[in-house]
Every structure is written in C-alpha cells, then in structure tokens.
Amino acid sequence: MRLVIQRVATATVSCAQGSRSIKKGLVVLFGAGANDDERHVGRLAQKTANLRIFEDENGKMNLSALSCGHELLVVPNFTLHADASHGLRPSFTDAARPETALSLYEAYLAGLRGILPEGRVQSGFFGEVMTIDMQCHGPVTILLDTDEWEKGSG
Questions:
Q1: In the predicted model, is pLDDT for residue 152 greater than 90?
Q2: CATH architecture, range 2-150
Q3: pTM score, whole prediction
Q4: How does pLDDT run across 20-77, given as a tens digit for each residue?
Q5: Which residues on adjacent β-strands are paired with residue 132?
C-alpha cells in the first residue's frame, strides 16, 4: 500500500454523490498495490494516526493528528501505483484490482476509526471521479509505502 499524506488547514472531497470535509488535519491519498494484503493495514493506520508532523509549542514537529484531535480525509487513489517508466502513458498493472483495493481501503478506514475519536475520519468515494479542494499547511507531505517495510526500511 502506498499513502501520500498531506497536512492541511482544511479539505473537501466532492463527486456526484456528495461531499465530505475536514478542518485542520491530514488528507491521505490511499493506493493499494496488486501484491498488497491486510497484514500491514493495522500498522499503517497506527503510523498515520501517530505520525508526528504537527508543531508543538516550540515549533518542532512533535505532535500527531491523534494527539492534537485533528481530522483525516482518506481518499482512494489507484494512480499512486502508476508506472510511467516506459513511454508517456502510465501503466496501472501494479495497482490492486478494484475488489481487493476496496477491501484494503475499508480495512484501513476501520483501523483509523478504531484509533481516532468518532467522527474524525472522513472517506472519499471509492471508484468515483472526485475533486479535492485543500489548503496545504506547511507544506508537509509524507510518503508511506509498505513495499519499503518489506525491504526493512519502514
């Protein structure tokens, strides 16, 4: 699984089905890979909720979304597994099949909702074309990739 985590002042995801918004917190773009399974979902949720990327009273990044009471907006994004190494049109064969990706996305959301207080985790719209409006704060952008964990660097 691959996550792009952005610290935001506010964010909204919209599609034909409606919209969901958060105030200060994190926008998480979630991509499931073809070889991913549920064994890393819990650790990924813990790491996301506890990632210390918010400033403390001394201006140091020592606080997490969980410790600050911030919100998360988690948006499914299969294009995170695009391979553009050959030619100009990306290949998406490294992305998980939709049914597997949906299962992993829902498991990750459940993991986050088990950690953060009720109402603090909003989801995007799986399989839909979405518009994301956000005010990045910092900017702070972090990439988490469970493939790196397999190599021992996560």
A1: no
A2: 3-Layer(bba) Sandwich (3.50)
A3: 0.94
A4: 999 999 999 999 999 999 999 999 999 999 999 999 999 999 999 999 999 999 999 9
A5: 13
Chain CA centroid to CA 43, Å: 13
Measured distance CA(94)–CA(81) in Å, rounded: 6
Domain parsing of the chain, residue ranges: 2-150
DSSP character string of the chain? -EEEEEEEEEEEEEETTEEEEESSEEEEEEE-BTT--GGGHHHHHHHHHH---EE-TTS-EEE-HHHHT-EEEEEE-GGGG-B-SSSSS-B-TTBPPHHHHHHHHHHHHHHHHHHSPTT-EEE--TTS--EEEEEEEEEEEEEEEHHHHHTT--
Cα angle 151, 106, 122 (rounded to 5 degrees) comes to 110
- Are 72 and 44 in contact, with CB atoms under 8 Å apart? no
